[in-house]
Amino acid sequence: MDVKDVILELRTKKGLSQDQLAERVHVTRQAVSRWENGETIPNTETLKLLSKLFDVSINTLLGSPRQMVCHCCGMSLDDSTTSKEIDGIFNEEYCKWCYSDGEFTLDFWKRYVELGGEEKFEEFKKQLICEFNALNVEGMPKVESLNVLSGSFINLEYELQNGKKVKFLDDNATYLGNQLPCEFGGERCFGIAANMQFLLVCTYEANGTNPELVIYKKR
Fold first, then answer.
1. Alpha-carbon gap, residue 50 to 4, rounded angstroms
2. Is 122 within 8 Å of 110 (Cβ atoms)?
3. CA 67 vs CA 89, 91, 92: distances in Å
4. Residue 95 is assigned to a structural domain of this protein
5. Domain count of the fold of the chain
6. What does DSSP assign to residue 76?
7. Rounded CA gap, 67 and 81, in Å?
8. Which domain holds residue 184?
9. 2 and 80 both lie in a single domain
10. Is 156 within a domain?
């Protein structure tokens, strides 16, 4: 949809006249009319006000010209999953599970923001990717990306050679990892996870069943 159609539809759904919308976002009725006729589009500050008023992202107001993804975990974003700041403004860089009310919710991400921000965090991910690829695990494809994952979702239990079953991760922590298909085909896939102390590579079947530990290596 074009911007003019989006604004008209949202205004109509909200039950507002052009005069009422203009008053709510501090512009003239003529400005609203020009938006809806496609003559102009709102400026950045007005888009923020419209976003908050209609409870949609700026990306939606602009006709969804880009595919939004969370910069933290990598999931696709829409208006229902995008995070918000304390004042209710959408933060279109993160999902609501990774970032909420002006704070990062995952401890791993928080740590790297404290250590140097997103740039340093991305550098660390690249370093881990190089380390995973240097393992040269047979059947595992080249690692190209890592996402922030909750330990509670990836903390599988492995059976050791002595018959003892152990878990290597912490349910309450977060890790960088991914799931990769096996190059040999079949039902099993690779799971990788890492933090500042170690690299972990495993294989498993659907829904994490029958997991087998391949590598647990301290960095």
1. 13
2. no
3. 19, 14, 11
4. yes
5. 3
6. B
7. 13
8. 119-218
9. no
10. yes
